[in-house]
Design brief:
With 183 residues, this protein is an alpha/beta fold. The protein is built from five helices and seven strands; from the N terminus they run αβαβαβαβαβββ.
Length: 183
């Protein structure tokens, strides 16, 4: 696996050594970050269900200022730690070993970009977006990027966050969401 673009372009990073983690394909990452490119300069980014950290590290490579990585797996935490050290970005990341909702309940940080890439068989994105909206964890011009299975649908509009763009790439849906008054 590699970083696609930016400062760390073509640098290899390690995958989580577990079948429980699904790595995001390069063409999905490329599509996400081509859409986000203007929003990443010095952005504060949250990478929930971080796995190897590939999405957050890609954001950092493209100019983000700080990444909070969240994953409940010890193997994922170790992999993110290794990848951060390999890229020499450890000062720009914080790794949290806990589940997504526990982290959201414990933080008061307001994020510019929130990356959600849970396992496709876990139906939690609507609950997470509802929590983010009701507790104002997304900046006024911020973006949530959610990756989920092709056969899954989201129901997020009632909390003031709307789906402004959706792409289907292979078996993955990618939704870009913003506050309804910022769209």
């Amino acid at each position: 696996m590699r970083i696609i673009s930016g400062r760390y372009r073509h640098r290899l990073i390690k995958e989580v050594p577990s079948d429980a983690t699904r790595e995001t394909k390069d063409r999905v990452k490329e599509s996400i970050f081509n859409s986000l490119h203007n929003q990443l300069t010095q952005a504060t980014v949250l990478d929930l269900f971080a796995g190897s950290g590939s999405l957050g590290l890609e954001a950092l490579s493209r100019g983000a200022g700080h990444i909070d990585f969240v994953d409940q797996s010890e193997l994922a935490r170790q992999t993110i730690n290794t990848n951060s050290k390999m890229l020499d970005v450890f000062d720009n990341v914080t790794i949290h070993k806990m589940d997504a909702m526990t982290f959201l309940q414990s933080t008061t940080t307001i994020y510019d970009v929130i990356l959600l890439d849970p396992p496709y068989d876990v139906n939690i994105i609507d609950d997470i977006i509802a929590f983010i909206a009701t507790h104002k964890r997304l900046s006024s011009q911020g973006t949530i990027v959610a990756l989920y299975g092709k056969k899954t649908s989201l129901n997020v509009g009632e909390y003031g966050i709307i789906d402004v763009k959706k792409k289907t790439i292979g078996i993955t849906n990618v939704s870009f969401m913003k506050w309804s008054d910022a769209a």
